[in-house]
Write a structure and sequence with these properties.
A seven-stranded mixed sheet has the order 5-6-1-2-3-4-7. The two termini are 19 Å apart. The protein has one helix and seven strands, in the order ββββββαβ. 6% of the residues lie in helices and 53% in strands. By secondary structure, the chain is mainly beta.
Length: 70
């Protein structure tokens, strides 16, 4: 999958899957802290290339959406 990267260049993880939750699409991302569910909404996506997606996530979003019980 593509890399998911923050605007400062920090790798968040690798996108494993994209699914439709009904309200919006969700990236399922493998991070070093477990699996994270990140909303795939236009407001967060800054740039997309062949191998990565750059996102600008609100503070705390990643931390509350990580399942560390891997």
């Amino acid at each position: 999958g593509k890399q998911l990267v923050d605007t400062d260049g920090t790798q968040i993880g690798i996108i494993k899957e994209l699914f439709d939750s009904g309200a919006q699409d969700i990236f399922v991302v493998d991070t070093e802290n477990g699996e994270a569910l990140i909303p795939a909404i236009k407001n967060f996506i800054i740039e997309e290339t062949d191998d990565k997606i750059v996102v600008d996530l609100p503070p705390g979003l990643l931390e509350i959406n990580v399942d560390s019980a891997k």
